[in-house]
């Protein structure tokens, strides 16, 4: 089971995984742990991440970034309208009223929702994680909800200050309207981001130079950290507000804080550090990687939630970031009623059961009760219609239990509703409750009652004694709920988006395969052209080299002309055509390298077996147990192999290197294996065991009595000409291997 954390930032994204007993941040296909939050649309495919970032300037109108803040916002939202003038790509209104992004994709104008573009980026991050883990990613934790924050206090906001400053400077100095040229504006954003990072490490004047910026004009400027901090004074003044808010919410004093750890790219700005340190009156801790800490925290939270990982015990309680209230039409003539069901910082996930008294279907409206705290102008969560509510048989209002929940993702919902139907029973009969009702009572954490005046009168306790009423039993009936959530995608729209994403993934895959096929042709042209005048030069005739070189040159020209945009199969065929000429040359070179090695190995085996035969003829003790007839066979095979080898070497030495070899190294290897399989069983045959007389056997069992006898009793190792029995050696080594504990 995979355990993954995703930090989806405004400009950059990080992926962390839990494995090998720890948390690590993984790199993308460019060996970079930072993946730009960028998506680029082209005429044939999409580019996502680092590949898209490289097209920010060349394909600026169709490369989108910084779209995270448009989530959940209507196109008419003041923030969206204010951002339109700062973007190089176009925004458009979706049919649902939300914000969309207009680009040219597959040579057609398309409008993608913010959810779709975010889905594309998450798909890329998922692929990065799966590539590292070598397994599918199903469950993950993604960073979204903060306890206290300022949505306009981040690295991008500091970049905006720099961009506006240099736009004004270049307008006065060079008479250039930078914001009228999207490509120039993108380049200025890139250079300002670099300058901002340099100023964090240097307090002296730093230059900003851009060649051929606009109208072939080179521009330059300079800035130092002091000037930058003065320009950003309004932004920096907002640093303390979220800090005060978090302290108030936690009900802590500054002296209660033991240590302060800062993370996030913008926390490297010295002025930000200074203000945070001054607020807490402490030196700041920077033990964590400022960029990767959030992703690593997400991976840790995923490990805590996963049943596949055992994590050191400690508690993390998620909370509801904004207070949530419900309002409804009162059954009495009181108009609208409302109630806060989840106050700010209430623990989540959590469920509550509310009780209403109704005779007909009714609706509940959920909303965030403190709009000023929201980063969005619309506080509405959604409408929930409780259907099929009917009065009791007596005509009285029915008791309706409504279960509301904030789930593990922080999403509010009306998860269930049920009607308690009262059924009269004979007098004296015990009341009866269903299992479902008992379960409801156990899960009920808070009960709210809304009833008519009659209902209230029934609850009065100062009424005179009345006749004994028959006991009742109840039955619980589930009620359907119709949800109408603000800005939520309808199921049919969600399914359409998923289907379209699948089609785009397939198109990206096909285009990648096409580009790979084209690149293989280009790489082969460059590789063979270099080698024809290098390592392959001796293995091709001058005439063939000239013919092949001309073919390579024609192919290169074709790649940049008619072959610039061809189907995958065309490139495959073109590569096969080139290899038909180049493969024989490459094989001759490979043979010349491998053939001497193969002959050397065969020669070593021949020498070993010749030594064994010679030792047998000299009646050495090591081989005196071998059969003479079998040794003669070995002698014959060795001599034949030596004659064969010398013959082939002589033939090959007479053969030109530009022609195919007389003998291939694979044939020599086969000859070597054939010789070993025939001779090895004969020369390595073990000596038969000799049955000792009873007295000698007893002495042998008693073992040697002194060091000299122990040396004489030890087995002698074979000489260099002996081929040892491989299986026996392996078994003896295996018995000596130490035991290891594998976690």
UniProtKB/TrEMBL annotation:
PROSITE patterns assigned to the protein according to its UniProt record, in alphabetical order: HSP70_3
SUPFAM superfamilies: Actin-like ATPase domain, Heat shock protein 70kD (HSP70), C-terminal subdomain, Heat shock protein 70kD (HSP70), peptide-binding domain
Keyword Cell division among record annotations: no
Keyword terms: ATP-binding, Cytoplasm, Nucleotide-binding, Phosphoprotein
InterPro entries in the cross-refs: ATPase_NBD, Heat_shock_70_CS, HSP70_C_sf, HSP70_peptide-bd_sf, Hsp_70_fam
One GO molecular-function entry: ATP-dependent protein folding chaperone
Any Pfam family the entry gives: HSP70
Cytoplasm recorded as keyword: yes
Compositional bias per record (Polar residues), positions renumbered to this chain: 724-734
Entry GO terms, CC: cytosol; nucleus
Family in the record: Belongs to the heat shock protein 70 family.
Protein name as it appears in the record: Heat shock protein 4b
Origin species: Scleropages formosus (Asian bonytongue)
